[in-house]
Amino acid sequence: MNAITPSAVLAAVLIAVTAKADQATSKDRGALFTITENGLWGYINRKGDVVVEPQFQMAGPFFEGMAEIIENFKVGFIDVTGRVVIKPQFEPAMFRSFREGLAHVQVAGKWGYIDKTGTFVIKPQFDDAYSFFEGLANAKVSRKWGYIDKTGQFVIQPSFLHSSNFFEGMAKITVEGKTGFIDKTGKFMKDWRR
After folding, report:
1. N- or C-end of the chain: fewer Cβ atoms within 10 A?
2. 43 near 52, Cβ under 8 Å?
3. Residues 176, 162: contact at Cβ < 8 Å?
4. Cα(34)–Cα(11) distance, integer angstroms
């Protein structure tokens, strides 16, 4: 294996820091950042030491101690040591991660949610889906977005053209060409903007 040059390490750190902090939840490991070498992805720590040798076709940031990896065009998850915890078996997507103990993954064109053992907690049934924030996740069916709880039930029915994650009890949505904010019950919180 070729030696990793200091400039490659610095470039990887700068890209990782400016794009998204790859925070691993392990206090022993600290933050881990993606690197590439010969077309393969791995991870370094803040000191620039290689922690996980470049070996994956693609690798994403760590959240809750797990990172998405792609092998043979299938998505799986590793822990901060680089051990494959959930074997690659899901359809590729751009860096879907664990949040609140669940990750959204795609199978046969539908999205569902797995736990950290790879077991489906919410079966694949959504046209698109995002991570849980504040106990709710935005999920799409029939071209409309709504919000589900951790049982997969819609608590805010799909009626939005666009939706964002909840933050401090509010989520930004778009309906009928207008944008506004709702609370976790679906009640509109702020005046509409055009």
Report:
1. C
2. yes
3. no
4. 11
Q: How many CB atoms lie within 10 A of CB 7?
A: 8
CB pairs under 8 A, 24+ apart, for 145-150? 145/173, 147/171, 147/184, 147/186, 148/122, 150/100, 150/102, 150/113, 150/121, 150/122
| Cβ 68 vs Cβ 33: under 8 Å | no
Residue type, 102: L
Predicted model pTM: 0.79
**C-alpha 172, offset from chain centre:** 19
**174 CB contacts (<8 Å, ≥6 apart)?**
160, 161, 162, 163
The residues pairing with 44 across neighbouring beta strands, listed in sequence order, are: 33, 50
Tokens of 161: 């053209």
pLDDT band at 9 (very low <50, low <70, confident <90, very high): very low
CA atoms within 13 A on the CB side of 70: 17
Structure tokens at 173: 């949505």
Confidence of residue 22 (pLDDT cuts 50, 70, 90): very low
Residue ranges of domains in the chain: 1-95, 100-194
Distance, in Å, from the CA atom of 151 to the CA atom of 60, rounded to the nearest integer, reads 26
Query: Which residues does residue 104 pair with via DSSP β-bridges, in sequence order?
Result: 113
CB proximity list for 191: less than 8 A, separation 6 or greater: 180
